[in-house]
Amino acid sequence: MTSTPFPVASRAASSSTTLGATPAAETLPAPDDHAVIGFLQRWYAYGGGRSEDILVEFGLSTTQFFTRAKDLLESKAVRVDPAVADAMLTVCRKRLWLGQ
């Protein structure tokens, strides 16, 4: 009997997804929500931070990072002053729209 390098459960979970679609929980690391918002609070006045810094600190592409930050701010999962949250959302939407 040969052993496989992957547990059977992970193969079953991945085979249940449709072609090309992978659940975000399986592919993305889960950085601390407060760390994401804290980074954005420090950098939103300057456009949200450099892509390289986001990749090094969180292991996420800019699209993944700003999508996560936008979702957190819109869901109010992390408490932020409403005026600051609006400014941060503007930065998130702009970076997502620009694709950077």
Automatic annotation (TrEMBL):
Protein species of origin: Rhodococcoides corynebacterioides
Pfam families (UniProt xref): DUF3263
Full protein name: DUF3263 domain-containing protein
InterPro entries (alphabetical): DUF3263
Residue ranges of the region described as Disordered: 1-27
